[in-house]
TrEMBL record:
Subunit and partners: Homodimer which binds Holliday junction (HJ) DNA. The HJ becomes 2-fold symmetrical on binding to RuvC with unstacked arms; it has a different conformation from HJ DNA in complex with RuvA. In the full resolvosome a probable DNA-RuvA(4)-RuvB(12)-RuvC(2) complex forms which resolves the HJ.
Name listed for the protein in its UniProt record: Crossover junction endodeoxyribonuclease RuvC
Biological source species: Legionella hackeliae
GO terms for biological process, alphabetical: DNA recombination; DNA repair
Residues noted as binding Mg(2+) 2 in the record, renumbered to the chain: 67
């Protein structure tokens, strides 16, 4: 049993999703958004840091998963996203949490089964997989998808490692 925190970083809105993994089953715990106020970038980054630290204290996740930065057409937006992502990673690392990173394509492939899925398809599958009554906010749904992806990847890695161990023993 482990608790996974998924983070969808953003300089204005950072989504988070918390799930509990029990064997092959996943259960929804919480999700939401850290919304920063207008103002200096440094102050918004501090709000993200404080928000992630609060989530660490509230849920004490065993592992953290975060989306990798993808290239934006606007370099300024990409830099701000990179800053937000870095601050979220430092907040998790300051709580001694293991952090895994996934590309948008990996997340979509893991949750929907198609790496070029649309946002609405991802949100639909998040609702189905977690048996939610309603769809969460877009950024929170993305963060839940990141947490689900991490759960799936952990399970797949575990199967591969067991298979390799069995082959070694058979030799």
């Amino acid at each position: 049993m482990s608790i996974i925190l998924g983070i969808d970083p953003g300089s204005r809105v950072t989504g988070y999703g918390v799930i509990k993994e029990e064997g092959r089953n996943i259960r929804y715990i919480d999700s939401g958004c850290i919304r920063t106020s207008d103002g200096e970038l440094s102050q918004r980054l501090l709000q993200i840091f404080d928000g992630i630290c609060q989530l660490m204290d509230d849920y004490n996740p065993d592992e953290v998963a975060i989306e990798q930065v993808f290239m934006h057409q606007n370099p300024s937006s990409a830099l701000k996203l990179g800053h937000a992502r870095g601050v979220a990673m430092v907040a998790a690392a300051s709580h001694r949490k293991r952090i895994s990173e996934y590309s948008p394509r990996e997340i979509k492939q893991s949750v929907v089964g198609y790496g070029a899925a649309q946002k609405e398809q991802v949100k639909h599958m998040v609702v189905k997989l977690l048996m939610l009554n309603s769809a969460p906010q877009s950024d929170a749904a993305d963060a839940l998808a990141i947490a689900i992806c991490h759960s799936h990847m952990r399970h797949n890695l575990s199967l591969i490692q067991r298979s390799q161990n069995l082959r070694r023993r058979a030799r």
